[in-house]
Fold each of these.
Amino acid sequence: MEGNKELVGVKEIARRANVSIGTVDRVLHNRTGVSKKTKDKILAIIEELAYQPNILARRLASKKQIVFAVIIPSVSDETDYWQEPLLGIEQAAGEIAPYGIILKKYFYDLNHKTSFVQQIDQIDLSDIQAVLIAPIFIEESENFLIKLDKRKIPYVFINSDIQGHNSLSYFGPELYQSGYLSAHLMKYVIKEDDTILIVNISHEIDNHHHLLRKEQGFRSYFKEKDLKNTILKIDIVQTDYQFVATSLQTVFKENNVSAIFVTNSRVSAVAKYLNQTNARKMLIGFDYTKENLQFLKQGSIDFLICQKPREQGYKGIMALYQFVVHAKTGEKNNFMPIDIITAQNCDFYIN
Amino acid sequence: MEGNKELVGVKEIARRANVSIGTVDRVLHNRTGVSKKTKDKILAIIEELAYQPNILARRLASKKQIVFAVIIPSVSDETDYWQEPLLGIEQAAGEIAPYGIILKKYFYDLNHKTSFVQQIDQIDLSDIQAVLIAPIFIEESENFLIKLDKRKIPYVFINSDIQGHNSLSYFGPELYQSGYLSAHLMKYVIKEDDTILIVNISHEIDNHHHLLRKEQGFRSYFKEKDLKNTILKIDIVQTDYQFVATSLQTVFKENNVSAIFVTNSRVSAVAKYLNQTNARKMLIGFDYTKENLQFLKQGSIDFLICQKPREQGYKGIMALYQFVVHAKTGEKNNFMPIDIITAQNCDFYIN
DNA sequence: TGTTAATTCGTGTACGTTAACGCATGTATT
DNA sequence: AATACATGCGTTAACGTACACGAATTAACA
């Protein structure tokens, strides 16, 4: 139960196989210079003893650092969303730094594919042991993944997933369900014949499928429950407040909207508009950003849906660490919880 | 920015101080056998170089294990709540096991102080480096903490806090606010003159202040918002279903209750009763247990409030690890997020 | 002054692994 | 037959720290 004291090491393996520890070491790292026969014998003994290398000794003896590449969007004034994953990444980095692991970070611009490609090209794969990547640009990412696969460099995705690749794991949201949940929360408040407005605010075309997926979830709820509310939708392709305000004004002039679902963190712009025009409507949006929080507390936003951006970064790095250092693999798909933030629990939220 | 290569070790310190590494080692562990003069000199150099011992080498060279004592309630049939913290604890244990840390667990019975004392007495403090404890029984815990303080053994609290002690940190809920939040959620649904019922189900007297704190938060919300709803309350001191059902029946006969707030995980019993009597009322309770989850999905429970029991255990152990091994301290008070679980997001919840 | 006992310190080995170095063999090339 | 070169392996010095052992120095006392 508690005492598996007799931890064997290379010495014991060597003794049993009648070879030197050098040879054992060679097969452990499958380097060349061992005959098939002895290699098999040693492998068998390793198997039999269920040998676990002592990682302390290993890292101590090996002077080379382990390097993880981190490829994520930069935090723009456009959105400070990516600050959070970065914080998580840096926390993890701090925790594993004592074990000789360092990070190399590559930031790309969410609005420009070219910047992504540029960063990718800058990476020297020959001195990188693992990769954490937010694969926003699908095609370009896939080209990169193929290179990684060739070199057998493990990688994990955060924030968005690409199917059909050998990623170690994915840490991020399940978008559909978050839209579905939003609809449910909305239903608590609206009446039978209320009109609902879905608002997409984004000029980042490549992110659009993100928003769409949430919208699908949202609409599905109404369909499944057979609710008859009118659901309007507006795409706002400029993110500055003036443009948003004007767009909303147009809609509101022609329709009597009583609840709004904003599909991303831009909900604060809508809240601001409602505030200024003194219109009180139910409002649901995404992400625990500074501006959103302000409107949440002040009452303009009813609910924020949030999916632990920081944790995505933290866990992503940790998954790489567990794999590279301890050869442990965890779950492949790690959907973040879909958190509901209100003015009452927001102070305790861990982003 | 990135390269603080020149990591100094005892060797360098010894060289600068014109002593041997043995002497340096002695002052590092402040053992005896070093003259004050050389000791001061070495200390000064350590300071100057901001020497950080290499923990890998340290743990490798030191054959002794580090032992953490874990003192928490056992999972009873009464409640399987404590299974979750335990899971978190065991996950953390798995992660730090490679670094020579082992756990000794002491389970006590929530219903019996004596069992707590009994477990405490069983612990041999001389071979324990740190303690994780759920200090449910305050007075008895305090006696124990004094002993720990004397031996300078660090400890962290989970689940409930005791003020005025040298605990490294606390990981657990802020109860008042979770009651407050529940009230807010309820307000979305109830009408002005609806009657509300608060239900306490517990025969564990010592846990009672937990429940009370939530009730206070709940009531405060109604007071602050100046809501005029009638709030009834019932204490149910037996936890078996029959007793709960009978108690509820009595209340419902005399009052027209339209929403119920159950102050702990026993909410499933209430849900079951509502189900059987075909009564539909808004229902809010606590904790992501198997039974609760079932009623949540099926629609009898509207919201579950949950505070990451697993994470409490995980983070508690990790805090001890960071302190004992890396001499790092984190925040003292770590209130868990107050999570809102509905049928729509429950599948993604991480307990 | 010599003897003894503290006190203060240096040396050596160990922890389990890595990896450079080098020594035997065996096989192919002139 | 002499030379070259590859293959298969053992030896050994690190990595940074812990700690036992014993040597040197000093203090104490006769």
Amino acid sequence: MGAQQAVDEARPVSARVQRKRGKRIQEIVTVAAELFGERGYDAVNLEDVAERLDVTKGSLYYYFSSKEELGTAAIQTLGDEWTDRLEKLLERADGSPAQRLRALIHEHVTIAVRDYPAALRVFLVPRNWPAAQRERIKELRTRHNQLFRDLIEEGIAAGEFTVTGVDTVLQCLHASMSQAPAWCAELSGRAQRAAIDELTDTLMMLVGVHPD
Amino acid sequence: MGAQQAVDEARPVSARVQRKRGKRIQEIVTVAAELFGERGYDAVNLEDVAERLDVTKGSLYYYFSSKEELGTAAIQTLGDEWTDRLEKLLERADGSPAQRLRALIHEHVTIAVRDYPAALRVFLVPRNWPAAQRERIKELRTRHNQLFRDLIEEGIAAGEFTVTGVDTVLQCLHASMSQAPAWCAELSGRAQRAAIDELTDTLMMLVGVHPD
DNA sequence: ACGAATTTTGACTTTTTAGTCAAGAGTTGA
DNA sequence: TCAACTCTTGACTAAAAAGTCAAAATTCGT
């Protein structure tokens, strides 16, 4: 029956089939997010997504009722995963605000550059997303920013950081991290790790903390 | 006869008519660049460009033989203008490397944020440009980067700057400036000038120079 | 003011891509 | 093995946007 029931929630099926379906959806979302990240929303066509998955376009519409819905799913899933990692890192991090901020920046850059090469750029560089998704991306960014903001303000209070304006620092942090995946695209292994470390050091300069 | 002779070079016409034609082309290019900057290459349709100019699409094809050619013209014209302003500033700038770098950053941000609100973002955020134009954008960026690089290296030699890696600093500078127009979009007048100043101060931190 | 050169128009074709769907292939549990 | 359920296909439609062009409108030089 196709699109109508693409995202029905309470559909009675066996647990096993349901699991399989969920896995397939994840596969699709992952591939779609990669492409959205590489090219931006507009420039991705579903035929390409399908091709990467070795299926045809029609099959995508069995799981998602529109391109927009697929976009939303990509943003949702990957965004949650990302936020989780940052929050978990902060839970186990200790040391001075500078040490914790360095760890947070490092984790953030690592995620963007190494772990999700193109996929998560989706969130960082605003492309031509439909309004609904832009809203979601903005929410996510606010959540991430809050993690950084709290830490930076703690560091200022402790007299460790020299910051002219917290918001401006956040913008620069965000902008730099968002373009990092593009710079580091060709690098691999050792060189990439070095680039991530150097970027982390450089970004710490924004709050007045020099390396060493 | 339309498209065929859209960009013929040696067409025999009177000087006056030739001038008029050139002016019209500039008008079109300016409007097109604005739209490309706002939405990215893909998302701009020529009907919209034409509408902003109060003409119809067919008319654009009298001057440009394709959308791609219009894109190239936009990049070329605006890029030259921008580079000119930066080079002129450096000619008349004096003082320490820090003072000159601050002036250069300030000028660059001012151009991007205030003088060409959306237009020149074309160069800064990589969108889905066809390969040929991507090449041009890269060239332009290299030229701009060189201006910054020379100054930063001078400042390092003079012992004024603390920099872990020049390339990484350039990337962060570039990334931050490229997203600045988006942050400052709503601001106007006094608030915008303040934002530009604060961004300049914050970016100077990247080379280890604190305000005051 | 008039003929020639230039510019604009709007209806046209073509291409691309989102979205639909009936029919068939594959899976599952009994 | 069979019937019901699930998934995939490929040919289809629809809409949007690039690109074309003959004819009409405008502007120019004399």
Amino acid sequence: MPEHRSGKPRYHHGDLRNALVRAAVDLARDGGPEAVVLRAAARRVGVSATAAYRHFSGQSDLLAAVKDHAQQCLVAAMEESREGIRGEGVEAAREGVKALGRGYVRFALREPGLFRSAFCGTVDPLGADAAGPPHGGQHHPQVRSFQMLTESLDALAEAGALPATRRQGAELSAWAMVHGVAVLIMGRHLGELTQEQTTQVVERAFDDLVAGLAAP
Amino acid sequence: MPEHRSGKPRYHHGDLRNALVRAAVDLARDGGPEAVVLRAAARRVGVSATAAYRHFSGQSDLLAAVKDHAQQCLVAAMEESREGIRGEGVEAAREGVKALGRGYVRFALREPGLFRSAFCGTVDPLGADAAGPPHGGQHHPQVRSFQMLTESLDALAEAGALPATRRQGAELSAWAMVHGVAVLIMGRHLGELTQEQTTQVVERAFDDLVAGLAAP
DNA sequence: CCGCCATGTTTACAGCGTCAACATGGAGCA
DNA sequence: TGCTCCATGTTGACGCTGTAAACATGGCGG
């Protein structure tokens, strides 16, 4: 794998696709999905605009790549957040769910541009991995995050904090609450909040969530 | 107030601002906020693109007008949905909250373009009505919908289905759950759902919400 | 060593938001 | 009644965008 750090501009870039994705991700980071401008990404890489068409079918395809990366970042934030929460009791199970939510919300507030990019457009339900991963490859990132949620809710049910009769369908309630909290705070729909107010309001929402799931 | 339905193209339109808003709203209805293209709206009205600058400071200003209209539509949907739910008991209070949520979600699913337009960009927290309505005018639509939510939560508390100690901060939980449900279903993040599956999953989420709010 | 074709470039076009300069005609005043 | 002013429209231009077509380059397999 050759290194391409040399300043010499060579006709063939060598790693243009990834370079474009990195540039596009940077654009998305500050500016959101609408800032992912194909020509701007090409300009940053030092390449002509149309060169991008050798690696992407168009701007929307580049944006899709950014979206994939953003979803992976979201998953990473969730995984990091629940590290160490591995107990067996009811409280540990509840903390597992909350930790996932905290990672989700913190990512949205720390990287609003990427978070918005991760959920832009409609997720095509007939993606490349519609029938499972083809050759042992990875699931789509969003599938992965949904799987984490499922596991944590299973643990919640196993610990007795979620009646078995209500286990099915719990994913939507949990995801909706967490996503809604993230979107509303990120969009400043509750006004400007101090960091302390933010954590307070977020924790309250998570408490309501797990309490609702625990109801008979 | 003159009528301008005549086919004769007159140099001075007479009601251009509202005509442009109507056209822009139509664009937003199918296509969302990114479909609100100034030149397209002007074309629909049969007027030059730059004419719009006599009534709007630019495209973002036109989009802001669309957003206002969309928020009013959302409020109307919520009001219609809770019509007739005026009882006094605990169950009536719960139904009041749920009715608001149902109107919210149904609007999002019936008019996704308008719903997305209603929440595009960040709500500028220092809007024209930051210090209350200036001269007896209306509150900003979003303030109105938030007020409806507040009232229904007050009723819930009064009926005993929301402990007084947890009354404060309940708005976020409720709004987040409802908003999250709307966004996730609208964005097809749970796959394609039949109408029946949709109502089922929505009602479940609302059950979890009111159960969570009722917890001690 | 050579030729192919993956990967780059240049050029071009239409549509977008926006500005400047110009045109029109209705409302108010002489 | 008639004139004039300016709110409201128009045309033209600029730079930006996405994208297509035609052309250039040079690394790699034969």
Amino acid sequence: MLHIYNTLSRREEPFETIEPGVVRMYVCGPTVYASSHIGHALSYIVFDVVRRYLEYKGFNVRHVQNFTDVDDKIINRSRELGIPWDELSARYSDEFLRDMDALNVKRAHEYPRASAVIEDIVADIARLIEMGNAYPLDGDVYFRVLSDPDYGKLSHRRLDEMNAGARVEVDERKEHPMDFALWKGAKPGEPAWDSPWGPGRPGWHIECTSMSTRSLGPQLDIHGGGNDLIFPHHENEIAQSEQLTGKAPFARYWMHNGWLLLNNEKMAKSEGNVLSIDNVVEKYGADAYRIFVLSSHYRRPLNFSEEAVVSAATVAERLATAVEGAEVGADTTAYAEDRAEFEAAMDDDFNTSRALAVLYRLATESNRLRSSEQDESGAASLLRELGSVLGLRLERWEVSAVGVEPFVDLLVQIRKELRGAKQFALADRVRDGLRELGVSVEDSPQGTKWRFER
RNA sequence: GGCGACGUGGCCAAGUGGUUAAGGCAGAGGUUUGCAAAACCUUGAUCAGCGGUUCGAAUCCGCUCGUCGCCUCCA
């Protein structure tokens, strides 16, 4: 049985859904004001694997992920660039989807946008005011944290222990320093929507409440996001949602991934130490980055290093080699133990590191059988199947070098004739020359194969 | 100040009370190869330090040292 670590209880809990067989999963999406980086990629790969594994287990997963497309950072950036905010957010949300496709992250079933649900948000805020959980203030609206007796239960902090204003100056007009904005009154020139409290835009946290309840109902099975979202974002979502719907828990399992570090420091735009997704995918390949991410447990912080990703790229090649040319969809019953071990690892709060060890063993097995001229298709098929649960494509890397293939084929054919004539010096010159051009040539009893090298 | 994560062989990383501490990368040796490449086989650690609990600890407790994160920008 699947067990998931729940941030709320700080324990692993057996996974039981609200509705049998159905998983309602909401993952916090990006604020689309700039390119996403490989830290974001880590998070979405983690939740992609969660989804894929749940689907493998037979659950009908309903996966919703929002785009935050109205907020201060977007407004600021659009001013800097002189581009309308909606154009800017559309540009980066499109780019985000392309990046996710490149990483083989399955698309969510729905991508609600904050700007498209303003009416719902206004209605929810009005209701919170009506119930006494929120109060208007000079065109803004704030959530009254003291109205939620459980406030702090996710992050396990108490209001009186928190160091309000540690990073941001406290607005003295608020009733309580931790009260947070549901609605922000617009300053001149800012994007604004009409509301009972004057023109403005939604605060950050309320959009997730409005969107998740509209898309998935008042209660979720899984709510996920990065570690840093625990406080305040998810804490505030819980407070709003549970007060609003009167139903608790808002989400049964709160999952949070650890942070990606670069040079042992948090990867963040403000630190200036970010690597772009397309850059890494192009250089190492999507499988390599996924293997790098999945080789450690998702809740642990992970340090990005050239060496670790290169190592993952080597592994990706090895796995791809092991399934290359093998019959697809062969009988895997002989490998039931390997499958069971993979499932046991994944059932243990998605222990992908252990799960990968099963794939490595299958790769070795497949290669060994093949080289001893036995049928490797069972091992290879299971490797493909379990690999796809981890979102691995297991394809050799190909350059879209349009039109050069016939020339390479010709050179390889000529080299074959030279070898046949024992003209090894010349044959090696061809091979070395091709390698310098990025083409590796491999001889085997079955013939000669060549491929582009990264 | 409050809350939390972590320190396992050169590198990455499982394992959280009990036979020989998974696995991968790199390195070394070997098989194969005209030579290579790919593949396969073999090969290394007593778990940051100190003290304690226990018949028994990497695994529990305490302290020390070190690293990282959160406390209204953030996946």
